[in-house]
Amino acid sequence: MYLLGLGLVLMAMKYLAYGPVAAWSWIWVLTPFALAVAWWAWADASGYTKRRAMERELERKNDRINKNRQNIGTLGKSKRR
Fold first, then answer.
1. Per residue in 13-26, pLDDT tens?
2. Contact predicate 4/33, CB 8 Å
3. Taking CA 38 as the corner, what is the angle to CA 60 and CA 29, rounded to the nearest 5 degrees?
4. Of 13, 46, 77, 81, which shows the fewest CB atoms inside 10 Å?
């Protein structure tokens, strides 16, 4: 996401001929977009994206369980045997 933001800022600066970016080649201005595509391809191929999604789901699940336990008053009590 940061690479996309950087690419948009550089592209706007190049289009508006603002600052030193105006003298740069379009190849350098568009490089952050290519890097973003490469990052997404790697993240999907390596399973990084799926792992992060599973971690978020697990955290939400545990938060929900703890909230429910706290609401019914069983948080902190040991299990009955």
1. 999 999 999 999 99
2. yes
3. 115
4. 81
- What would the two tokens of residue 56 be? 């978020």
Closest of 48, 14, 17 to residue 6, by C-alpha: 14
Q: How far apart are CA 48 and CA 42, in angstroms?
A: 8
Q: What is the pLDDT of residues 30-51, one digit of tens each?
A: 999 999 999 999 988 898 888 8
Q: Provide the whole-model pTM.
A: 0.63
Contact 1, 7 (CB under 8 A): no
The one-letter amino acid code at 10 reads: L
Q: Which of 31, 41, 23 is nearest to 4 (CA)?
A: 31
Q: Is the distance from CB of 10 to CB of 2 less than 8 angstroms? A: no
